[in-house]
Amino acid sequence: MKRNLLLLTILLFATFTSSAQIFRIGLKAGINYANQNGTTITVNSTNYKTDAITNFHIGLLAEVKLGERFSIQPELLYSTQGAKYDAVGVINDFTNDVGYVSIPLMAKINLNNTFSLDFGPQASFLMSKKNDVSINDQKNLDFGAGGGLSIHITKGLFLQGRYIVGLNEISPEAKVKNSVLQVSAGFFF
């Protein structure tokens, strides 16, 4: 059984390597500049204003070419986001630092061999939150829409900039949505 699994893995790797023009797998990591925005941010009867925080993301991605200028890029990322909440008129500040497993599905329009425009939906699943956070009932699922630009430095090395805006409120109590600016570096095998 183990031998068959090893043989299957080698065959799949050989197939993906031989069809590298159609399908590629890679890694990426970078920084997040995240915030949580809302019209009225009220938590436990206290009004807050938010400030962005800096965090990170890391994960796997694939690229599936569907033509000369178009490809799909599914990703699986661990992304830390949140915001710093400053109480208006009260000393009751806290940082909402949360971790998500995010699954973006980006459509890529290759402008030339160096630049591509990326856009598409993203689903994120809440995995962790800081213990001292006062936001109760934080939703476990967050949907967003992203757009950005990729710069292909070499055939395998790339840089990406992307902005993701939340489409749903992450907590009924706070009435806020996630937003995150991501800057990434990565490579395809």
UniProtKB/TrEMBL annotation:
Under the heading SUPFAM superfamilies, the entry gives: OMPA-like
Which residue numbers delimit the Outer membrane protein beta-barrel domain? 21-170
Which stretch is the leader sequence?
1-20
Q: Note whether Plastid occurs among the keywords.
A: no
Q: Which UniProt keywords apply?
A: Signal
Name this polypeptide is given: PorT family protein
